[in-house]
Amino acid sequence: MYLGAHVSSSGGIENSIKQGDGYEINSIQIMPTAPMRWATKNIEQSSIEKFVEQLKGSQVKKILIHGIYLTNLAREDKQLFHLGKMGLVVYLDFANRVSQLITKNSLDVDVLGVCFHPGSQKELNYEDSLERISYGIDWVLNEVGGDQWLLVESTAGSGMNMGRSFTELSNIRDGCKEKDRVGYVLDTQHTYAAGYDWVNDIDSVVEEIGETLKFERIKSIHLNDSMTELGSNKDRHANLGKGKLGKDTISNILHREEFKNIPFILETPSLSNPKGALEEISQLKELAK
Question: What is the pTM assigned to this prediction?
Fold first, then answer.
């Protein structure tokens, strides 16, 4: 089973590997640049070399890269749309170069791709927003070759955010010409807030995931409890077992046969400090037994 958490890249991206090893997890999620700053310049090769060097002897086996929070591919504004695309170009290029260096060093580590929030329907109608997101994804994939994927993350559906349903996620991918490198990251809190009842009807939720999205296209699951009720459309994460999902549901998700090869990544509030992160990861491992 692949269990992990979002870790900090502060002080150098290689420190994220050290942090993952300190938590004794085999999967990590990182942001290689500041989350609320536009990424417009490729990450230096020397930093990538330090990152991969740190992987030697590490127990980290799965790496998910999370895009910056400013990205909104549903924007009509040409400059903001382009900045969003360029941020994904920088991150996808990073993913490719890390993956290539991992292969060169014969390391047993997988880079899962670049996860990002698709965007908010602010300026365009619904259909045009979907088309705009798909076009942006194609543009990025055409700019950056290789075998790394762009992964559209499910959202809670707050405001005008896109990606609130499995059908909507599927429609985004279907609108792409380069769909072979397009997949998904599902968030348990977001999907619960969007109306998918993990607590009382987990079988139906898992069945719909398989039918609509296909399990092989899901590269990771953000494992978060929810502070808010089913269908609230509010993005409010809670620590494992402390929210509306609860320990039993989290455990049931972890042990679904359909998810056995998909890395689970924590994004819960306790990760904000080392002590809290260790406690939360300990809880994750306990629920995974």
Answer: 0.96
